Predict the structure.
Amino acid sequence: MQTYEEQKAVIAKLNVIDDIFFQKMTEDPEVAEEILRIILEKPRLKVLSSQPQRFLRNVGAHSVVLDLLCEDEDHSLINCEVQKQDDDDHQRRVRFNRSNIDTLFAEKGIDYKELPDIYLIFISKFDIFGENLTIYHINRVIEETGTVVENGVHELYVNTAINDQSGIAELMQYFKESVGQHQNFRKLCNRVKYFKEDQKGVQDMCQAVQEYATEYAKEYAKKEHIQTATNLLLNGASVDLIAKSIPSLSRQFLTELSKTLQQSTD
């Protein structure tokens, strides 16, 4: 069992840009609000609800766990994701997250005009577009005229790699290093200090890290099981046989997966 000093040394290496640390920071709605006010440049923004690690189930397809999903006082939704590794097509990942959020509301039977605005914020440790900017705002435009056209979707890409000395860059540098106090985001700094220096905070964070590691291992195993089930279904194996062979996957899930695969091959 680790001593407190050993635990503290482990947690000291974590920063806000780390997924599990970001999750613990934004469990406090006031901290989430402080971060979003700076990134969105809306100093009066009010967060009505804050849900770290929001799970969106997509039966028969790839479900999504959002790092942070918030609702503001205008009932706009704000999805904030953090990513350290440049190892995927992250723009399509942002697109997929958006589609799942939209589906969540479409399933409630609301009209298209009632769909809320969505702010998709992608925070990375790398400059995703390589244009040497701290933040990028992506808009839909008419190519022929350059006119911006709105559909309620707002994409923002922010990174810790470029420091342009702006307020957003100052926040991003803190995401990367997570030490000291800053008057523009005191709530975040105080929460970081609690989890890095307070004994109870350090112990709580260590437990969260252990749980995160366990869940990651389970999720990795589940992905392997889904891939195996997909291969078996494509080769003609029955749902009953696969359900008996891979008990970690429910019969309902396998049935939906089978339908999805059948539709894709028709």
Notes: The chain has a mean pLDDT of 87. The first strand starts at residue 47 and ends at 56. The first helix runs from residue 4 to 12. The CA atoms of residues 40 and 184 lie 14 Å apart.
